[in-house]
Amino acid sequence: MDKFEKLTGIAAPMPLVNIDTDMIIPKRFLKSIKRTGFGVSLFDEMRYNRDGSEIPEFVLNQPQYRDAEILIAGDNFGCGSSREHAPWAIKDFGIKAIVSTSFADIFYNNCFKNGILPIVLPQEQVDALMKDAEKGSNARMIVDLVEQTVSSSEGEVFSFEVDPFKKHCLLNGLDDIALSLEKAPAIDTYEAKSSQERPWV
């Protein structure tokens, strides 16, 4: 997993509330356990017509937001089923941080496990960032995990809270597998001792 320290990028405004995981990645695309290849299907039903052509009005289809790395979202983002494919699709598209007033718990935790930073801010601050994001590609925001701040293109700075352990994992690029591998020496020691004491196991 890539390390996340500081991100300067385009923010896409998506003010819809209650965007669930089926809207993020419809269930018909859940045919792989690989973490890549899902970005093209992100927000499929909002992003494409039935013939596969793009819906021009959808924010991520607009030229100024095609390279967005930050998403400013409405309340209760990531609700619905617990599919981990949702953060996979978001990350594969290129979005690395999401700002909202609230997230569904399972989605929120899955974001950290996949290198995405979900940021919770009060409604008035999200509204200010949403308005800033509507300026398009010229409005580049800064997300600083070390300082725990989001800065608008106008230099307005908002502070956010994050669990220290989750912060540590993102800063160091540690997913669940990497965390387990950090304990490899202790595991090897235990297994060696166990083999000597219980060779029949």
Features:
201 residues, alpha/beta, Aconitase, domain 4, 7-stranded mixed β-sheet, 8 helices, globular
Walk me through what this model shows:
The chain is α/β, with parallel strands linked by helices. It has one domain: Aconitase, domain 4, CATH 3.20.19.10. The protein has eight helices and seven strands. Strands 4-3-2-1-5-6-7 form a seven-stranded mixed β-sheet. It is globular.
So what's the CATH class? Answer: Alpha Beta
Shape: globular
What is the name of the CATH superfamily? Aconitase, domain 4
Number of domains: 1
User: Into which percentage range does the β-strand content fall?
Assistant: 15-25%
Mean pLDDT across the residues is 91
- CATH topology assignment: Aconitase, domain 4
Q: Would you identify the regions where 5 or more consecutive residues have pLDDT less than 50?
A: none
Q: How many strands in all?
A: 7
Question: For the terminal residues, how far apart are their CA atoms?
Answer: 35 Å
Following the backbone from N to C, one meets helices and strands in this order, namely EHHEHEHEHEEEHHH
Structural class call reads alpha/beta
How do the strands line up in the largest sheet?
A: 4-3-2-1-5-6-7
Largest sheet: 7 strands, mixed
**What is the CATH-assigned architecture?**
Alpha-Beta Barrel
The amount of helix comes to 25-40%
Query: Helix count?
Result: 8
Report the radius of gyration as a whole number of Å: 19 Å
